[in-house]
Amino acid sequence: MPQNIFILTGAGISAESGLGTFRDKRGEGIWARFDPMKLATPEAFARDPEAVLAFYDLRRRNLRDAKPNAAHFALARLEHALARRGETLTLVTQNIDDLHERTGSASVIHMHGELLKARCERCEALRPWLDDLTISDVCPDCGRAGTMRPHVVWFGEMPLGMDLIDRALREADLFVAIGASGAVYPAAGFVAEARAYGLRTCEINLEAADNADLFDEQRLGSASGTVPAWVEELVGP
Ligand code: BJW
Fold this sequence. Notes:
Blueprint: E1 4-9, H1 12-15, H2 30-33, H3 36-39, H4 42-47, H5 49-65, H6 70-84, E2 88-93, H7 99-102, E3 108-110, E4 113-120, E5 126-128, E6 148-152, H8 162-171, E7 174-178, H9 190-196, E8 200-205, E9 217-220, H10 223-235
Parallel strand pairs: 1-2, 1-7, 2-3, 7-8, 8-9
Antiparallel strand pairs: 4-5, 4-6
The structure holds ligand BJW.
């Protein structure tokens, strides 16, 4: 029977590419060093745009030096192997990096935005943005200064692609979460929705997520080892 797979990836899939996670049980994640309420909310950006832009400039520079790892490559291979069998992979990521795209994943849904894009708060223009972003940058579309912001979803903002995500969840047979802590909603609620729609559910993670009890199957280990092994089980070497 054809299989439609829905995969949600989180910061854990990019951890071995050197991008860091937000939360971990050792208290060493990004949010242990930086206060999300001062850097990842619209209110923080209104209060202190320089601090917020500097945080994302640093992350953008780190991303330029990062390389995809074996887990990103395996998911791109899975997508193409499923397509050859007339099956589909919906790849939704909470990550703002572009490591899935760099390995050839074709249509990634970035529900928390993309670090290498900026958008104008005035005219909503969305532009590729590879360099640092400053408060005096001019919008290439409307020509106003001081209106560009990182194209990321902060706390209190609506994640992107929610209609597409809901449709894909309804049409899938299997839900898999990879390297996500299950701490941030609405993504943390997808597994419950998947169960309600009758999907099988699988967690692939270094440490059990906050919502681990909602998964039918759990594979613990680092993404660069567990994901390629799981993909090989599904579609062969
Ligand atoms: C490995 C590994 C290795 C490590 N191999 N694994 C209830 C319902 C709905 C909303 C809320 C709610 N309660 C509260 C809210 C509001 C809020 C929220 O969830 N707050 C919680 C903190 C409680 N949510 C929002 O505000 C969201 N918007 C919203 O809700 O709008 C209204 C709405 C309602 C209902 C439906 C639809 C909309 C917006 C959330 C925006 C999150 N933004 C950030 C920053 C983005 C930009 C940036 O990158 O700076 O997104 S926060 C940060 O957390 C980032 C991540 O995408 C997100 C999730 O993190 P993730 O990916 O799970 O990573 P970690 O670090 O938490 O976990 C890493 C995992 O990897 C761990 O499990 C490790 O074990 C594992 N790992 N190494 C494999 N090598």
